[in-house]
Amino acid sequence: MEKGMALLIKGEPYVIVEREFVNPGKGSAFVRLKLKNPNTGQVLRETMKSQDQVEDIVVEDKDSQYLYADGENYHFMDLDTYEQFEIPMASFEDYNLLMKEGDTYTLVMWESRPLEIKLPYKVIYKVTQAEEAVKGDTVTGATKIVEVETGLKVKVPIFIKEGERILVNTETKEYVERVNQ
Predict the structure, then answer these.
(1) Residues 109 and 75 in one domain
(2) Are 12 and 39 within 8 A, CB to CB?
(3) Pick from 45, 47, 100, 141: CA 20 to 30 A from residue 36's CA?
(4) Is 26 part of a structural domain of the chain?
(5) Domains in the chain: how many in total?
């Protein structure tokens, strides 16, 4: 069982969000799982022994273009059929700050229902708001907060200016490096 894997529990699909393997000195090994139902946003915490049986489900990866968010749903378009569909924002709360309109993302689909939005590990964003660095304020490792095109706020080194492009880790939401145009 790995992070991102989909399981059927009590007839509902769940995606593994976190996974911790535990091998105690006595007794059999087990896995602690944090599972999320992408349809309802419900989170389950399960502990499973290695001999427990679970029903994994067959999912399909589908490339889809992110169109926009309307406050309740993310709107995507299937790149093969041009069919448009919605994914509840409650299932992926902070993704609106990480996804850029018009970009293509891989969706994990089960029975024509999206279970998960796969974000790239790192994404390039344009800095839209950045305060100017104060001269003489060059303490080693000095940082400031900037805002990128999606509204995400990121802590960056003080030399980053408005209009520049930066690489951000989507899992930690942390600055990685400046990107030259």
Answers:
(1) yes
(2) yes
(3) 100
(4) yes
(5) 3
The pLDDT tens digits for 81-123 are 898 988 888 778 778 899 999 999 998 888 878 888 888 999 9
Contacts of 10 (CB under 8 A, 6+ apart): none
Question: In 24-142, where do the E strands start and end?
Answer: 30-36, 43-49, 55-56, 60-69, 73-78, 84-88, 104-110, 113-118, 122-129
Tell me: do 97 and 85 sit in the same domain: yes
158 is a domain residue:
yes
47 and 73: one domain?
Answer: no
Q: How crowded is residue 48: how many other Cβ atoms within 10 Å of its Cβ?
A: 14
- pLDDT number for residue 138: 59
Distance separating the N- and C-terminal Cα atoms of the chain: 40
Distances, alpha carbon 56 to alpha carbons 41, 60, 181, in Å:
19, 13, 44
The model's pLDDT over 6-53, given as tens digits with 9 standing for 90+, comes to: 888 877 888 888 888 888 888 888 888 888 887 777 788 888 886 777
Q: Residue 1: inside a domain, yes or no? A: no
The CATH number linked to 46 is 2.30.30.30
| Residue given tokens 């029903």 in the structure block | 55
Range of the domain at 148: 122-179
